[in-house]
Amino acid sequence: MHRQKLITAGILWIGLCSIAIGQDPRFSQFYAVPLQNNPALNGVFEGRVRLSSNYRELYPGLADGRSFRTYAVSGENRFRVVNRDYVAMGISVRQDEVGARPSTRSQAMLGASFLKQLSGGRGNKTTQYLVAGFQTALEQYTIGSDNVWYSSQYDRASNSVDVSTPSGEISGVLRSSVLPDLNTGLLWYLVRDGRGSMFLGLAGQHVLEPSIRFIGEPGTPLYRRFTLQGGGEWMLSKQISLLPAAQGMVQGPHSSLALGTQIRYANRFLGDIALRTGLWAHLAGQVGQVPFGMDALSISALFETGRFNWGLSYDLTVSPLRRSNYGKGGVEFSIMYQQPARERFNVKCPRF
To answer: Considering the entire predicted model, what is its pTM?
Structure first.
């Protein structure tokens, strides 16, 4: 029992260190959380309204069975302003729960983007857009004290812990100050009717690099994060296409890269129904501590049913951490809804 508590305490420390150094969570289905990755992806979809919901559960075999969980919801609305240029507004909310200790990170973002058509129009089979976006954000961190004991509560004689013994530490929930923040991004994309598409984006998150403070401490900076993404769709036939994509992120000493592809099959007799399956590799590293290398493989499936997309993925841990979590990685769900536009012509956008 004592050994189990020590393991749990060690995991808690790792989780809390991750918060202190300001590393953002990631989604395996990065293509299903557009507003979390680049403000310029706001409004880039073939419709007028887009709603999405995401859930990720990581390492369920650690921290006394309490996994690391991330929830995100977002909504976007796009409006035409002149010719075929558009403005989009979007809101996104995310919460992370870290390990066995009830420690959370809450974030709310409100953003806007401008979609400028570079080429295309009636009778033109090639469409290009340049999109610029920004987000204002508020974040707050909390650290709880449930399931936590301190060395002053440990009795060596009985090899047990008495949580009723005063610890001398601050109890209850600690909350950081509310952190104002700013994110910016650019996106270029090209769509060719019947031939596929391509896109390239660059974003900067935590531009203000706010400082995380608890109970009057000097604080720890939330590192700026830079995100580079690219991909597209390659049509193999009228029914089958490949959707390769990659996304790299650098945040302080941390870096990660996700890359892979999906195969999309759409039967012309089934209307708007299509199925995607994919395989993704995730690589990560930390300068001076963890060499850059393979962290996980992700198997994904996405089912398109008219206005809804239903996504499911599972991560297989391939890093040395697999010896502790028995190879269990993370499971992730996503639901996306798109309302068609009520206009004579639709905005052509790539598939993600």
So the answer is: 0.83
